[in-house]
Amino acid sequence: GDSVTQMEGPVTLSEEAFLTINCTYTATGYPSLFWYVQYPGEGLQLLLKATKADDKGSNKGFEATYRKETTSFHLEKGSVQVSDSAVYFCALISGRSQGNLIFGKGTKLSVKP
Amino acid sequence: NAGVTQTPKFQVLKTGQSMTLQCAQDMNHNSMYWYRQDPGMGLRLIYYSASEGTTDKGEVPNGYNVSRLNKREFSLRLESAAPSQTSVYFCASSEQGAIETQYFGPGTRLLVL
């Protein structure tokens, strides 16, 4: 079936460091891709999304580009802040998922001052 | 706007007991979802309701039932709780379908002894 694989965490960075969280997917056709973020003690929030190949989603300084050739949707931020500490989930929607989100396992990010 | 609200926040059950988790949204959304979140597993869809009057099984529906009471409310029932149902449960809603941004509630932490 369709699936999402994220890099294992936790990831610990110093403030202002560059962030990359890898995400690759397996899906038939052309899925839509998402990054959701979960801050401590809260529900998930949509961070960004891309619905077709080569689209770039961006929000709050985070970016991810839909790469069909490498089936990837890596999340990047140029300079992280302590307030970015959270769990990040990559997800997809495909025809086989009946239009529902399939989530990766999540990557915990801790940013130290 | 309260967004998506869930009750209770925390519950302890004994094996075999039943309970209903409540979810309500005030955004006039058509679609609603129930997920469970387990350590290292990401989020998995239990049931969803694409629109008022319809419900469908997700990835892990066994042991659960749902009711879309009206457009605002979507409840999740455990008829006979088992320790394997110990988890954090999230309700979410979207305007129409999962391709739209999903808005999550704060979660219900359930412990089954």
Q: Helix and strand layout, with pairings?
A:
The complex is a heterodimer of chains A (113) and B (113).
Chain A lengths: L2 E4 L4 E4 L4 E3 L1 E4 L5 E7 L5 E7 L5 E4 L2 E4 L9 E3 L8 E8 L8 E2 L3 E6 L1
Parallel strand pairs in A: 2-12
Antiparallel strand pairs in A: 1-4, 3-9, 5-6, 5-10, 7-8, 8-9, 10-11, 10-12
Chain B lengths: L3 E4 L2 E4 L5 E7 L5 E8 L3 E8 L6 E2 L6 E5 L5 E5 L8 E8 L8 E2 L3 E5 L1
Parallel strand pairs in B: 2-11
Antiparallel strand pairs in B: 1-3, 3-8, 4-5, 4-9, 5-6, 7-8, 9-10, 9-11
What is the gist of this entry?
By secondary structure, chain A is mostly beta strands. Chain A has no helices and twelve strands. In chain B, strands 2, 4, 5, 6, 9, 10 and 11 form a seven-stranded mixed beta sheet that branches. In chain B, strands 1-3-8-7 form a four-stranded antiparallel beta sheet, with no helix packed on it.
